[in-house]
């Protein structure tokens, strides 16, 4: 009888230990899943190609003045397409702020969207975006073939498209700047150009 109780106790302890190991493993898989995101901004093949000159745009900004995008700006420009109703866009705004601050010596950041002007004016006020050029233009989104948000286009000082893509994280913003510096359209195209190991 004592032997049966001992064996059952050992089995229960083993099951408890195994359950704890499975929970710990499941937690680690969850952490890995959160940390691993697609490498680089997700580039779509529609719209003007990387390396192509962008059309010139001169658009009124909701925050005042006229915003020029494209040739003739003498500084590089990042056009960040967002929407007041996009939760990921709102999550990325602190990152946009830090990019603007860190890259201020050579980069202008323009916020772009389309839709009802009043909704954007409320969003600008609530999100504290009054210091950014903020354009509302369906024409701009159509020109770059923006199908999903948030989306960014990085232009050099001559109005050439140097990187573009769907953005969901800081790492994907960084991939645009890495592609810009390496003179490749995306991190994926850089990796594709490398000889196989």
UniProtKB/TrEMBL annotation:
Sorted alphabetically, the Gene Ontology cellular component annotations on this record are: membrane
Q: Which UniProt keywords apply?
A: Membrane, Transmembrane, Transmembrane helix
Pathway, per UniProt? Answer: One-carbon metabolism; methylamine degradation
Which Pfam families does this one have?
Thioredoxin_2
Q: Domain (Thioredoxin): give its ranges.
A: 48-185
List where in the cell it is found: Membrane
Is Phosphoprotein set as a keyword in this record? Answer: no
Function summary: May be required for disulfide bond formation in some proteins.
What NCBIfam families does the record point to? MauD
Protein name per UniProt? Methylamine utilization protein MauD
Species assigned in the record = Gluconacetobacter tumulicola
